[in-house]
Amino acid sequence: MGIAFPEGSISVTTAGGDIVILRICDLCGAAVVEAEGTDLAFHKRWHRVTGSGNWIDSATGRLHGPGSPTRS
């Protein structure tokens, strides 16, 4: 059993009535807030700069990310 991340974006309404857009990173599954000064492109640059584009699902031992045999 692996992890299945949703694709695209998700919107959340806060208790104060504000709408927050979350974009899902296809490398790590993080929900990245779409806001001034930060976005999914910034998050993906972080992956490239830190070399953390690949990660291993601890439940399955399967490699994920751009260097994996099958991108998930």
Written overview of the protein:
The strands form 2 sheets. This protein has a 3-stranded antiparallel sheet, with no helix packed on it. The chain has 72 residues and is of the alpha+beta class. It has one helix at 40-50; strands at 9-13, 19-24, 31-33, 55-56, 63-64. It contains 1 helix and 5 strands; from the N terminus they run E-E-E-H-E-E. The model has no long low-confidence stretch (mean pLDDT 76). The radius of gyration is 14 Å and the shape is flat.
Gist of the model:
The protein has 72 residues and is of the alpha+beta class.
What's the structural blueprint in terms of helices and strands?
Blueprint: E1 9-13, E2 19-24, E3 31-33, H1 40-50, E4 55-56, E5 63-64
Antiparallel strand pairs: 1-2, 2-3, 4-5
Shape, principal axes of CA atoms: flat
- Strand runs, count: 5
As a percent range, the share of helical residues equals 10-25%
Widest sheet: strand ordering: 1-2-3
Which band does the percent of strand residues land in?
25-35%
Topology pattern, helix = H, strand = E: EEEHEE
Unreliable residue stretches: none
Distance between the termini: 13 Å
Largest sheet: 3 strands, antiparallel
Structural class: alpha+beta
Count of helical stretches: 1
Radius of gyration: 14 Å
Mean pLDDT: 76
